[in-house]
Design brief:
With 235 residues, the chain is mainly α. It contains ten helices and four strands, in the order αααααββββααααα. One of its GO terms (molecular function) is membrane insertase activity.
């Protein structure tokens, strides 16, 4: 994690002539975009996997109808179907799983107070006078509700809410357009899943401002990237 810290600090130093004390906040956004660009091939693979599952959904429904009482035969038939298509059931899931460790490390980078036994310098800078290492509750206690510092958190939460709403609507639309909607317990889970996008608001309210900026950058990238990739695959 120390090496990632060095990269972010180098970016911040390069941006300081333009952003002054807010250079670290800008560097977090630039660094997040750079990492997401590196992970873009995995995102493309995930979308291709989703398209494959959607295309095979009618055949999968038929296999479940024929072999629903024999789990092993269903597993074997599913594997054979995907092999025939030159794919696997994990094609859409594996890329996302591979990205999770990267996201975890980046999140830790922007939330931990110390790295390698020293204070995390990323949390020393400010954005519009709000320390990047400060939480919303601390900002309210230190500056009050009617302050520029609290407004920074307010703008962040509004932006996250807008991204979450866009994600929610796209997810609901995708579920409505599915040729084989889930049934039974899976349907109940599917109804709840789109609401999880609003969880970023809760997280941003309890983590340091630096982590909130990272959340906004990465979630905005995610929904924009998926909209673009799904639009390209549909055309």
């Amino acid at each position: 994690m120390y090496y990632l810290l060095s990269v972010v600090l180098t970016i911040a130093d390069a941006l300081r002539p333009l952003f002054a004390a807010s250079a670290t906040a800008a560097a977090i956004v630039v660094f997040t975009i750079a990492v997401r660009l590196l992970l873009h091939p995995l995102s493309r693979a995930a979308v291709r996997g989703e398209k494959t599952r959607q295309r095979l959904a009618p055949k999968m429904a038929e296999l479940k109808r024929r072999h629903g009482d024999d789990r092993q035969r269903l597993v074997d038939a599913t594997g054979e179907l995907y092999r025939t298509e030159g794919s696997t059931p994990l094609t859409g899931c594996l890329p996302m799983l591979l990205q999770l460790p990267v996201f975890f490390v980046m999140y830790r980078l922007f939330t931990t107070d110390s790295i390698s036994g020293a204070a995390n310098p990323l949390l020393d800078d400010t954005l519009a006078g709000t320390p990047l290492g400060q939480h919303l509750s601390e900002t309210l206690a230190a500056f009050g509700l009617a302050s520029v510092q609290t407004l920074v958190f307010g703008v962040l939460l509004v932006a996250l809410a807008a991204v979450a709403l866009w994600t929610y609507r796209r997810t609901r639309r995708g579920m409505a357009d599915s040729p084989n909607p889930p049934e039974g317990p899976a349907a109940a889970v599917a109804r709840v899943m789109p609401l999880l996008s609003f969880g970023t608001l809760i997280v941003a309210a309890i983590v340091p401002l630096a982590a909130g900026i990272y959340l906004l950058a990465t979630t905005t990238w995610t929904v924009t990237e998926r909209a673009w990739l799904q639009g390209r695959s549909a055309s």
